[in-house]
Specification:
2 domains; alpha+beta; 3 helices
């Protein structure tokens, strides 16, 4: 076996050639797989499709964000908390058949519905509430209790 410098140079070039051949074949098969999956003539067309899809996704995401913000803002005015108190307002009737139902949003704005049960009948009253205070009428102690006890409807709050 010869140890001449030409032999070492030949070995180095041969190894270099093998490495480049391996990398080229690997790149070629990856390129062909990419072209087959994309069903396009060239990588440029495939990349153009990817860029277009990304732009469409970004636009859709922006629309979803706007829609989400609008829904979130609108949901603040929906009934979110409910409070119920049963009580006996009169000593001459038996049981807690009267009740107060508070239906309010996140800012305690809504309505309090009172039902007072007597021997002669049941009377219903409704009072508007804005930020926890009665609008036209003061809230009774029981109505304030129902409002204070109002819990969020969803379990994640």
């Amino acid at each position: 076996m010869s140890t001449s410098p030409e032999f070492f140079i030949f070995i180095v070039f041969f190894l270099w050639f093998l490495i480049l051949t391996f990398l080229f074949i690997r790149f070629y098969f990856y390129y062909m797989k990419l072209i087959r999956k994309g069903k396009k003539e060239s990588v440029l067309e495939l990349l153009d499709d990817v860029i277009r899809a990304e732009e469409n996704n970004r636009k859709s995401l922006d629309q979803l964000r706007l829609s989400h913000d609008k829904l979130e803002k609108s949901s603040l005015s929906h009934i979110q908390k409910v409070g119920l108190i049963r009580f006996n307002p009169f000593k001459d009737t038996g049981g807690d058949q009267s009740f107060i139902l508070a239906l309010v949003d996140a800012e305690n704005t809504g309505v309090v519905i009172s039902s007072l049960h007597t021997r002669t009948g049941t009377r219903w009253y409704a009072k508007g509430i804005v930020r926890g205070k009665g609008v036209e009428h003061e809230l009774s102690r029981e109505e304030e209790k129902a409002l204070a006890g109002a819990k969020f409807l969803s379990s994640n709050e």
